[in-house]
Amino acid sequence: MDASENSIIKLPLQFGFFKGAELSDFSNALSWFDWTLEGDNLTIDLTECQTANYQTLSLILLYIWRLSCNGSKISISVSGKDALNLSGAERMWKNMGAQGWYKVLRNQEINFDGTYTKPLFALRNSSDFDLILERIMKYTASFRLEYIQTMRYLISELLYNTLEHGSATLHGQRIPSLVQFNWYKRQNKLAFIIADLGIGIKRHLEQSYPGFENDSQAILYALRPQITGTKSVLNPYTEKNNAGMGLYLTSNIIRNLKANMYIISGKGLVHISPVDFTSKELSSAWHGTFVYVTIQLSNEDDVNLEKLMSEFRAKAMHELQNGNGLDEQIHYLNMRNYFGSNPVNKESAIWYRNEKLIPALEEGKTIRMDFSDILTAPHSFLSALIATPIKKLGLEAYRRIKIINASPELRETIDYIFEENTL
Ligand SMILES: Nc1ncnc2c1ncn2[C@@H]1O[C@H](COP(=O)(O)OP(=O)(O)OP(=O)(O)O)[C@@H](O)[C@H]1O
Ligand SMILES: [Mg+2]
Q: What is the pLDDT of residues 241-270, one digit of tens each?
C-alpha cells in the first residue's frame, strides 16, 4: 500500500494471539501487518484497542522500526488521557516503555525503560544480552532455584539464535531483535517472546542444506540435533562453532517443563507442546522469526537441569545413530545449478535420470527437485527427466518426488506429466 500523505493504521479492538485457553491463533494478529506499506507520514492508532497481549504488541515495535528505517515518519496516536485512566493497548504500550522506540532504534546505548513488571528490551549486541539475562533472572528470582537455572539456559539459547542468525539491517541501519516478558502472577504463568526481522529459518538453513518445501518444514528440520545453518564459522558471541543443538535442547526442555513453544518464521508455525510437535503454514507471514513461549509454573515439579541435559544429550546421540538426519534420505537436485536457467538439453536429462534419479529412488530416497530461478522448460525435457521415475513408482511418485519453487507455468507441465504417468 502506498500512503504518500498521512495514513492512519488502527489497531483493532482485540489484538493478540488468543484462541481458547490453550491454542494460540497467530494468523489473525499477523494479518494486521501490511508489509507493503510505505509512506512519508504514518500514524499507528492504539486508542480503539481494548484487549491485547504484551507479546503481540511488542511485534509492532519491530514493524515500526522497519518502517522508520524505510524512511517513514511514524507517530503513535494515543488518547491523551492521563496515565491512570488509560486502558487497553495504550496502557500496555506505556507500561512497557514502548514510547521510547525511536531513541532505542537510533542509539545502541539506550534500552526501553518501562515498568519493572513488564520487561521489554532491544537486543543488538553482547552487552544487551548480558543486561537482558540479568534483568530476567532478577524478575524471576522468586521462582524455585532449579527453574531459574533451566529458564536461564532456555532463554540464553533463544537469545543467541536471534543474535547469531536473525540480525536485520535496512538501509544501513541495524534493526534490533526484541524481547518481552510477562509474568501472569494470578495464573502463575510466564509468557515471553523473542522476535526478529532477520532472514528467517528457511533461508538461513538453506545456506547449508538443500531447499525446503516450505517454512514449517525448515523449522521442523532446525529442531533436529546437530542441524545448523552456519558453516563452521566461529561465532563472535559464543566463540564456538554452532553445534546445531540449541533448538533441539530447548524444545526438549519445553516439553519437560510442561510449557508451550511456538516458533514462527515466514509463514511456518511449529508448536512444541508437552505431548507433541505440530506444524502448519499460516495465511499471513511474519517477515523474520519469533519464538513465543508460555510456561505454567508449578511448585511441585522437580526440574533438575543437569540430569535433564544429560538425558537429552543421550537421546540426541541415539537419534543420530539411528540415522534420523534427513540428509541421507533425500536426493536434492537444484535444477539451475545442474542444467542452467534454461534447461533444454534432453541428453543430459536422460543421463541424470538414469545415473542419479533412478538409483536414488532404488535406495529408498525421496527426490527433491528445486526449480528456483527457472522460468520455463520444454515439456519434452521435463518428461525425459521424470516420466520414467514416475511410471516406476506409480501413485507413490506423489510422495517420493517433491517439486519445489516451481513457477505456475512449470507446475502445470509437471502436474500433467505426473497425471499422464500415473494413470
Ligand atoms: N532467529 C533465527 N533466524 C534465522 N534462523 C534461525 C533462527 N533461529 C534458529 N535459526 C536456524 O535454526 C538453526 C538451528 O538452530 P540451533 O539453535 O538448533 O543451532 P545453532 O544455533 O546453529 O547451533 P547452537 O545453538 O548449538 O550454537 C540455526 O543454525 C539457524 O539456521
Ligand atoms: Mg542456537
A: 678 889 999 999 998 888 999 999 999 999
Check if 246 has its Cβ closer than 6 Å to any atom of ligand 1: yes
Boundaries of every domain in the chain: 2-321, 327-422
Distance between CA 154 and CA 151 in Å, rounded? 5
Q: What is the pLDDT of residue 328?
A: 53
Q: How far apart are alpha carbons 141 and 90 in whole angstroms?
A: 29
For the purposes of burial, counting CB atoms within 10 Å of the CB of 106, is it exposed (0-12), middle (13-18) or buried (19 or more)?
Answer: exposed
Identify the residue whose C-alpha is closest to ligand 1 atom 29.
228
- Is 287's C-beta closer than 6 angstroms to any atom of ligand 1? no
Would the pTM of this model clear 0.85, i.e. be above it? no
Q: Where are the beta strands (DSSP E) in 201-299?
A: 259-272, 277-296
- When pLDDT is averaged across residues 45-69 and rounded to a whole number, the result is 95
- Answer whether 167 contacts ligand 1 (Cβ < 6 A): no
Burial of 158 (0-12, 13-18, 19+ CB in 10 A): buried
Q: Rounded distance, CA 226 to CA 243, Å? A: 6
Answer for the pair 46, 93: CB distance below 8 angstroms, yes or no.
Answer: yes
Rounded CA gap, 127 and 177, in Å?
13
Ligand 1 centroid to Cα of residue 271, in Å, is: 17
Nearest to 106 by CA among 174, 197, 5, 31: 174
CATH number of 2-321: 3.30.565.10
Closest of 422, 376, 418, 356 to residue 395, by C-alpha = 422
CA of 160 to the centre of ligand 2 (A): 6
